[in-house]
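Could you help me review a protein record that somebody else here produced? What it holds is a sequence and that sequence's fold in token form. I have pasted the whole thing underneath without changing anything:
=====
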Amino acid sequence: MERITSNNAPAAIGPYVHATKSANIIFTSGQIGLKPQTSELFEGIEEQAKQTLENLKNILESSNSDFEHVLKATIYLDNLDNFSKVNSIYKNYFSEEFSARSAVEVSKLPMGAKIEIELVAETK
């Protein structure tokens, strides 16, 4: 198993790494919309969703992968009423060949985030 940390993603806010890789499968830790330089949370669902995906993009790149190689995404939302807003941003990061995905509403996310996303991907 390989532990992966990206210099282009916000530092972990707990005892974990950005991702782990076993053979050619990558498991990312859940990411929220933190600015990588300051670890400040963006405001608003659209801004948080975009930054969350940017953080994941950087972690995938550090793992020799990209969104085209995502096998499964799990999205946690503090309010499922934001589902369509997240979809409009999410689809810009993936091709028409979408991966499997789940989206669930949760009562609370770290640092008061509105969205958290974790991915399972394969290497290029």
Observations:
- The two ends are 17 Å apart (CA to CA).
- The chain has a mean pLDDT of 96.
- Strands lie at 2-4, 19-22, 25-28, 70-77, 100-105, 115-122.
- The chain has two helices and six strands.
